[in-house]
Amino acid sequence: MHWTSWQEFLTMRGYGLYVWGSFGACAAGMILEPLLLNQRWRSLQSRLPHEKDDV
Amino acid sequence: MMTSGFITALRRDLLLAARHKSEWLTALFFFVMVTNLLPLGVGPDAALLRKIAPGVLWIGALLSTLLGLQRLFASDYADGTLEQMALSPTSLSWLVAGKMFTHWLVCGLPVVLMAPLLGVQFDLPSRSLGLLTLSLLLGTPILSAVGSVGAALTLGVRSSGALLSLLILPLYIPALIFGAGAVEADLAGISPQGHLSLLGALLLVSVFFSPWITAVALRIALE
Amino acid sequence: MSNSVINWFKYASPSSFYPLAGRLIPYFSLAAVLLMALGLWLGLFVAPTDAQQSEGYRIIFVHVPASWMSMFIYCVMAFWSALGLAFNTRLSGMMTAALAPTGALFAFLSLWTGALWGKPMWGAWWVWDARLTSQLILFFLYLGFIALQSAIDDPRRADRAGALLALVGVVNVPIIYFSVQWWNTLHQGASVSLTKAPSMAHIMLLGMLIMALGFWAYTIAMALKRVRCIILERELTSEWIKRNALD
After folding, report:
1. By residue range, what is the domain housing residue C158?
2. Which end of chain C is more exposed for a tag (fewer CB within 10 A), N or C?
3. Domain count along chain C
């Protein structure tokens, strides 16, 4: 491991904005998509003819 | 005879175009308008205008082609003619080819003929004017051919006009690059032959496959 | 469902694929989380600092996998489309529709991370490089596909029209890429070249591959989840859902 401090890790030696901007966007997209899908799934469950427990 | 559908569709659509002149005149006028607005937007610098002229004229041609495409099958679809065509024993692909060719005659060809005139406004040298006309002559049939697939896919669909541009414009990029590129290359002193050959190849491929794919798309729309 | 012999054609019908997809989702989700965690650890902590690009290069650990997946997903969509048009199976259209939003997300993320990488490396958020431009066009193709499908009300027609569009698109992608590259060499602005660093350390490559595998597992999990939603939406009134709504 080559990071000498947390500070250095967070600022990425000056590239913090770019690196965390990229990783953050990916994280946001890949967390939001499952959440939206789950919402769609749940709203479908409530419209099902026979109410049954969630899988 | 296989090609009888081609002739029938050609004759019928030409007659319709002759009756509704405003439809294709609008597309042509749009082309003239767009290309004339551009100098007003970027300023009258002759060197700059000469540089961007091929791209501007080509993009004008793309957009005015789109205008006519929306109506390529729409009225036949609305009044049920298209369904009759699909059921008739003549090959649907040949009928589609006829309609495509008519679309080029009434939307593409006027643009090609108008282009040198507009090129003069952009101060293009006469050699480039000829090349521009040639590249549009090779390229506008590609626009009609590729566009007809999109027109068939979006037939009778909500906001089909906007959707058609979203589907088709990305597919126009190769034609735009080789078409405008041929003139730009010549202006830069490079031989435009490579561009023109590739444009010709695109033309052959798209004209060969498009009627068939369009016919498939029409059958999907009519199902 | 206790057959040990799997008959693949059985799963071509939505009613039998639905429970299978439900059982597979947890595995792929778990694989996605584990692989991405491992990939992030390799990428952020283990991989050494790049000699030329310092820490900025770490963006490749998300940028390259996102770009790969966006291209790969389009090819998979084309595969399902061809299958759907050839054999007229309903499931293929649903799979194509289920994959498209995830593919569009990855295409967008690839562009976004590409811009964030480009700014420190070449001093511009956007350069008209052949790869970036092609990626942008791929994003447009995804948007066109999604727009077409959502504009058509009849699901059968939406599937078939979408399948045809995906196939036309996949034939055009290489042509577009070639033409954009041609255009790029003609207009070679200056020093900008996106070719990868000449010697990439093995650990970087490994991290990238593991991240790509994680993205792949994520894609499958999302597509399966979405295809289950699509199946339910379309067959809400059909018999098999009424019989045993969810098993």
Report:
1. 31-44+57-188+202-235
2. N
3. 1
**pLDDT, position C74:** 95
C140 touches chain B (CB under 8 A): yes
Q: What is the pLDDT of residue B157?
A: 86
Q: B with C: 3 or more CB pairs under 8 Å? A: yes
DSSP helix/strand/coil, C50: strand
**In a domain? residue C25:** no
Q: What is the pLDDT of residues B161-220, one digit of tens each?
A: 889 999 999 999 999 999 998 998 888 888 888 899 999 999 999 999 999 999 999 999
Chain C residue whose CA is closest to B218: C161
Residue C97, min C-alpha distance to chain A (Å): 14
pLDDT, position C1 = 42
Query: Is residue C242 in a domain?
Result: no
CA–CA min distance C168, chain A (Å): 27
Q: What is the DSSP string of chain A?
A: -----HHHHHHGGGTHHHHHHHHHHHHHHHHHHHHHHHHHHHHHHHH-SS-----
pTM: 0.88
Domain residues for B65?
A: 4-222
Question: Domain spans of chain A?
Answer: 17-41
Cα–Cα distance for residue pair B171/C168, rounded to 1 Å = 9
Contacts of A33 in chain C (CB under 8 A): 101-102, 105, 222
Answer whether residue C10 is part of any domain: no
pLDDT in tens, B109-150: 999 999 999 999 988 888 889 999 999 999 999 999 999 999
The answer to whether position C6 is within a domain reads no
Is C63 a residue whose pLDDT tops 60? yes
Which distant-in-sequence residues (6+ apart) come within 8 Å of C12 by Cβ?
C87, C89, C91
How many domains in chain B?
Answer: 1
* Chain B positions with Cβ closer than 8 Å to C: 149, 153-154, 157-160, 163, 166-167, 169-171, 173-174, 177-178, 181, 184-185, 190, 198, 202, 213, 216-217, 220-221, 223
